[in-house]
Amino acid sequence: MPNEVNTSLSRRHTREPLAGGPQKATDSAICPPGAGRTKIGFVGLSAGAGATTLAFAAAEYLAARPEKPAVSLLEIDMRPDAPAGRPYDKIGIDRRFAGRNFIPFYILAAEGKPLQGAGNIDGGISWALRVPGVPAPAPGLVTLHRLLNNISGDIIVCDISAPGILGSARPPVGGYAAAGGYAAAGSYAAPAGYPAPASSPGGGLTAEAAGRAALLALLADLDHAICIFDPLPSRLLAAVPAAETCRAASASGVPTTFVFNKLNAGVNLREATRFTGVRDYIPFPAAPAEAVYGAEYACHSLAAEPGIKAALATLFG
Fold first, then answer.
1. What is the pLDDT of residue 308?
2. Would the pTM of this model clear 0.85, i.e. be above it?
């Protein structure tokens, strides 16, 4: 899908005229191949963008397809802890797995143990989530790539916290290894008009550049990245670093789709698209509050909510 995104997102775009004609929603769709393994990332560009909600709904939607693919839901986050309220609690794993063991994939990956063939199956999905309250080292980039490439499934749906990665990655010794045929992050060549990663006075990557390099390496390992904006103005501003990184990944060849989530009558979509520079996007409506609360109390996703289901049908064809 072609994407036309500003080379640099900043506050000034809120006052610049629209370029390239009126904004429009895309009619393109992501169609997982009939055979093989597909890794699809739902990338939340700011806190509260709704990546977890949409990833859970997408996993249930895909698991219900007529061909019945094996679907895994993988949480990708580098933050040093997994507090209550994270995806594990959002979907009610304690209730879903009452009386059953829940395999701690993050710990197995960090310890270098085999991952294939193992699964936390419930509702037709294998859940690979961080477990709140279980002592474990902060997941590094190697652990996340091991999870992404070694857990079982025909379709791996990834819930990716871009701010968590940008804020938690640290400069590695010797640079990151190249992933998926793309340039190593330590020697990443920026697209035209895009700033090159910053270096520290000692010559290595700064923490900010290391975070961007880590996110780029993860995006390069996906078959498709779905980058999610919350159109609330304060969250659009917070999304700038992650959105710029997603644009760089797209320029490097990562198939990318942009989503405006939580659309409602109060959203000035023309202003939101003018700020981001995104012309091709898929709209997702704001689910009714009672549906959001009811789903979490019932430990379900929003895959059955009519507006979300229709948007998922557009996204996946």
1. 95
2. no
